[in-house]
Amino acid sequence: MSALSRWILLAAALGAALVLALVLVGALAGPAWTAAAEQYFDPDFLSRARAYNRGRYLLFALGQALTLGLLALGVARGWHRQVAAAIEGMVGPRPLLAVALFTALLLFALRAAGLPVGLARLALDHRYGLSTQPLGLWLSDWLKGLAVEAAVLIPLVTGLFWLVRRWPQGWWLPASGGLALYLVAASSLGPVVVDPLFHRFTPLQDPALAGEVRDLARRAGVPADEVLVMDASRRTRRVNAYFAGVGRTRRIVLYDTLLSAYDRRQVLLVLAHELGHWRLGHIRRGLGLGILGGAAGLWLAQRLLAGAGPRPGDPSQVAVLTLFFLLASLAVLPVQNLVSRAFEREADRFAIALTGDPAGMAALEERLGRDNLGDVDPHPFIRAVLFTHPPVVERMEAALRSP
Fold it and tell me: Which of 83, 178, 365, 390 is the most buried (most CB within 10 A)?
């Protein structure tokens, strides 16, 4: 491996290590919280929520370290080349078939390595009363997820390595175009192709509420083609709603747990926030940032593979490429979540302006924090690295300060 390739991997590894270190420091810090948190939440809740979320953070760090450590060890010891050579010995002079088989084997190995941590997370959710998902259903979802990943990743990686073999110096440019097409397609087709594999979606049966939802969407300037209810209660007691899809696949999705436990005012406030994401262009902006970030990653990956050996498009390079992207994805997580939190603040302000109900929004955030056992006042490191949304206390106080 060339010096440049080593430096690229080392930089990604140092960034990922820093992120994991911040998570560990934040997770293991004492259970201190601000006076603002104590103003809205009792100490018993804060202690219980902190204990639950500490477990989540530690499992996240363990899962990342285990997956990355095993993959890095395999690359450092040269096991990836041995496996690639064995596969090539079986399939003969069919390099793309060898790439496909190597990708399938690596995907299964990484998913299997993460299985114990996933089961531990399920046990943690059951212990704290947040999960309703039986083990059999969890394993079924795990197998479905593996099948979906295989169906998507194996053709994508095989196509990518066709480009690598054909244009060793410039493959990253057409690959960036392909990535853009994939991200747009995934946003469009995911809600109608992938999501129904895991959940059942039915039209909202409450005509009065459906009418209010459509009226809210109309006032937000967002055409709501469908209002669907998802059977979230089969897996969780958490509550949520979201806006998904683009173009003709656009739909509003409500958790059945939200409809069964929250009143109309609260449901509409949740929806107003989700509609804000669409109205403010967060989906398009997120796609744009994803495409730019992906192109930058592919540009670096080209330089990495150029010096990784033994030849352009060798199946063993799938492991090197996977290690780089996993490390880089973890390293840029704080930046990604910084942008996400900015979008969430904008959506909160939009929802308050649309409904004219800042007090209702603050009360909603408090209840969501309680019902989801959220870390309402996290350690600053945890907030910076892992939080896609502003903490609950911050969102409550922002709502109460609204005019």
Answer: 365
The label of the residue with tokens 């945890």 reads 382
CA pair distance 279, 111, nearest whole angstrom: 37
SS3 label, residue 254 = strand
**Residue 272 belongs to some domain of the structure:** yes
CA atoms of 53 and 278, how far apart (whole Å): 30
User: Are 118 and 64 a contacting pair, CB within 8 Å?
Assistant: no
Angle (deg, nearest 10), helices 282-306 and 172-189: 150
Within this chain, do residues 104 and 191 fall inside the same structural domain, yes or no?
yes
Residues 154 and 113 in one domain: yes
* Interior/surface letters 290-322, b for 16+ CB within 10 angstroms, e for the rest: bbebbbebbebbbbbbeebeeebbbbbbbbbbb
Helix axes 333-355, 282-306, angle to 10 degrees: 170
- Among 308, 313, 306, 315, smallest CA distance to 85 is for 315
Count of domains forming the chain: 3
Residue 186 forms part of a structural domain? yes
Of 331, 360, 395, the residue at which a domain comes to its end is 331
Which tens digit of pLDDT belongs to each residue from 188-233?
Answer: 888 888 889 999 999 888 888 888 888 888 898 887 667 889 999 9
Residue 392 in domain? yes
DSSP of 334-382: HHHHHHHHHHHHHHHHHHHHHHT-HHHHHHHHHHHHHHTT--SS--HHH
Asked if 320 contacts 8 with a C-beta cutoff of 8 angstroms, the reply is: no
How far is CA 385 from its chain centroid? 13
**Rounded CA separation 105/394 (Å):** 44
Range of the domain at 228: 199-280
**Token pair for 274:** 């989700």
Answer whether residue 53 is part of any domain: no
Do 256 and 272 share a domain, yes or no?
A: yes
Structure tokens at 197: 């594999």
Q: Which residues of the chain have pLDDT under 70?
A: 224-225, 246-247
Please provide the DSSP assignment of 20-87 as one string.
HHHHHHHHHS-S---HHHHHHS-HHHHHHHHHHHHHHHHHHHHHHHHHHHHHHHHHHHTHHHHHHHHH
> Are 183 and 265 contained in the same domain?
no
In 184-250 the beta strands, taken as DSSP E runs, fall at: 201-203, 227-230, 241-244
